[in-house]
């Protein structure tokens, strides 16, 4: 048979206390008291401590928020651009439809004659055209067709202006007479 140990079932090994003596109860009480103090101290108002992992996690979250914010801002701007472009396309489509309708109307000879009469004051052979002229010599009426006035004469061409400035640069500058003010006169005027 094996030798019987001093530790039997349910027995604890001998522990040394803070003073180096054996005694399990003293060490157990010291541990329990220290644990109770630590729990009481942590709930009594000590600030939560940030660990390295928490700081890194916070940094990653802030980085992701920043990245997604700029992406969402760009998406929102592009969405607004798309909406304005769609509105512009719809307006252009309406204008194209109106111009095509007008083009079809000009294919009709009766509409073409009507426009010639209204815009230019033309009359067909055998018709008599009348215009009412006021006492001031101007044609009376709301929609009085007039021909465009002749083109106004333009000033000299750009190359003539350039050549004129070259000619002027070769001349002697005009000297203006310089007069020195009389100091007595200046003092009397003040």
Give the helices and strands, then pairings.
Blueprint: H1 24-43, H2 52-106, H3 109-120, H4 158-169, H5 183-189
3D architecture notes:
The protein starts with 23 loop residues before the first helix and ends with a helix. It is built from five helices and no strands. With 190 residues, it is mainly alpha-helical. The model has no long low-confidence stretch (mean pLDDT 77).
Structural features:
mainly alpha; 56% helix; 190 residues; 5 helices
The helicity comes to 55-70%
Count of alpha and pi helical runs:
5
What value does the Rg take, in angstroms?
Answer: 52 Å
Summing up helix and strand content along with how strands pair, one would put the structural category as mainly alpha
Sum up the overall morphology in one term.
flat
List segments where confidence is low: pLDDT < 50 over at least 5 consecutive residues.
Answer: none
N-to-C series of helices and strands? HHHHH
Biggest β-sheet: count, sense, barrel?
Answer: none
Gap between N and C termini: 137 Å
Concise account of the structure shown:
By secondary structure, the chain is mainly α. It has 5 helices and no strands.
């Amino acid at each position: 048979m094996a030798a019987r140990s001093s530790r039997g079932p349910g027995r604890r090994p001998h522990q040394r206390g803070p003073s180096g003596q054996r005694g399990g109860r003293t060490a157990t009480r010291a541990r329990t008291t220290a644990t109770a103090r630590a729990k009481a101290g942590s709930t009594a108002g000590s600030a939560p401590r940030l660990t390295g992992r928490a700081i890194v996690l916070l940094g990653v979250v802030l980085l992701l928020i920043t990245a997604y914010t700029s992406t969402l801002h760009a998406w929102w701007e592009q969405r607004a651009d798309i909406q304005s472009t769609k509105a512009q396309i719809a307006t252009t489509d309406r204008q194209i439809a109106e111009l095509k309708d007008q083009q079809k109307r000009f294919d009709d000879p009766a509409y073409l004659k009507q426009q010639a009469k209204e815009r230019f004051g033309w009359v067909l052979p055998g018709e008599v055209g009348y215009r009412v002229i006021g006492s001031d010599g101007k044609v009376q009426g709301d929609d009085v067709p007039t021909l465009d006035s002749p083109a106004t004469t333009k000033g000299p061409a750009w190359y003539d202006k350039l050549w004129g400035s070259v000619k002027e640069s070769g001349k002697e500058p005009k000297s203006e007479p310089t007069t020195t003010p009389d100091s007595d006169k200046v003092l009397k005027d003040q």
